[in-house]
Amino acid sequence: MKILVTGGAGFIGSAVVRQFIDETPHSVVNVDKLTYSGNLESLKSISGDPRYFFEHVDICDALELARVFETRQPDCVMHLAAESHVDRSISGPAEFIQTNIVGTYALLEASRSYYGSLPEERKSRFRFHHISTDEVYGTLGKEGLFTEETPYSPNSPYSASKASSDHLVRAWHHTYGLPVLTTNCSNNYGPYHFPEKLIPLMILNATNRKPLPVYGNGENIRDWLYVEDHARALRLVLEKGKIGENYNIGGRNEKTNLEVVHTICTILDELLPEGAPHASLISFVKDRPGHDFRYAIDASKIAKELGWMPRETFESGIRKTVEWYLENEAWVNHVTSGEYRNWIETHYEKGSA
């Protein structure tokens, strides 16, 4: 197959692209605008593969999307392109509305037009796989899990924009017959994660003896999913998922934010004993507005119907993650210095690869 992946230079998208190229015979067309968190250096290991193609395109650009579909002729779409950082959505929601809602609409329309032009044999294989978040469900108390039937109740501009995109995808399936799949995942972590997010921020701050800022009292709970496990689940849903269905993907690893930070500090105390105790750097800061208390995914549907289970525990995944950041100083330094932004200028021209 030829798979069009939007947001393939992002954290989760790049993991999906690397897996497709490294572990399957499929080819990939990576469509990415390359916003601040899009990093082509995360794809350096596969960038020269003849089955990999890059398109420097904004998903809000309908004309460019039409060109990409026409020239690349994908067999399916995996839609990961999104603005995703909750804090940024609070201080500047406009980009989230534009990319996550308007961009998804533009991609759906481009996909619908393209799908309608395909011969019946290719139509039968086409899929539009929309990748979303558990944050669309809102917040949980101390008990319970999000299921595929949980009512939507988003509480941040980010989660509201993703909920909107989910509803658009559902509508394009029921109204226009576009063959869609939707997945909602818990918090991802792992290699190549942009350092504004909790886990990479804590690792990099601790290694540089900077404060480790924790919101509120640190008791907010998240279900953590290793990004390579998530990428495997996404591939499985694309290949075997039932059209029109939603699948929740979670790691079965509920941890408070404070537990996560202490775990990172303990691993760093072992690997970098000269900086121990790293937990002494923890500081508590004013809580995020509307901070959801707890997310937790019931992933029994994807386990039962498709046979997916995460390979990594939180303990094994977080150790791999810490070790990766310590062993990949060049990637980290290019991200923190902004040098990674030069990659597109030296390796690609707009709209081609």
Tell me about this structure.
The chain has 353 residues and is of the alpha/beta class. It has a domain at 2-192 and 224-253 and 294-313: Rossmann fold (3-Layer(aba) Sandwich). The protein has helices at residues 11-23, 62-72, 86-91, 94-117, 120-123, 157-176, 198-207, 227-240, 257-271, 300-306, 314-327, 329-337, 343-347; strands at residues 2-6, 27-32, 52-56, 76-79, 127-133, 180-185, 187-189, 212-215, 221-226, 246-249, 254-256, 282-285. The model is unreliable at 347-353 (pLDDT under 50).
Task: Throw out a few tags for this protein.
353 residues, alpha/beta, Rossmann fold, three-stranded mixed β-sheet, globular, disordered C terminus
Write the layout of secondary structure elements.
Layout: E1 2-6, H1 11-23, E2 27-32, E3 52-56, H2 62-72, E4 76-79, H3 86-91, H4 94-117, H5 120-123, E5 127-133, H6 157-176, E6 180-185, E7 187-189, H7 198-207, E8 212-215, E9 221-226, H8 227-240, E10 246-249, E11 254-256, H9 257-271, E12 282-285, H10 300-306, H11 314-327, H12 329-337, H13 343-347
Parallel strand pairs: 1-2, 1-4, 2-3, 4-5, 5-6, 6-10, 7-9, 8-12
Antiparallel strand pairs: 9-11
Helix pairs in contact: 1-8, 2-4, 4-6, 7-9, 9-11
Brief sketch in words of this structure:
The protein has helices at 11-23, 62-72, 86-91, 94-117, 120-123, 157-176, 198-207, 227-240, 257-271, 300-306, 314-327, 329-337, 343-347; strands at residues 2-6, 27-32, 52-56, 76-79, 127-133, 180-185, 187-189, 212-215, 221-226, 246-249, 254-256, 282-285.
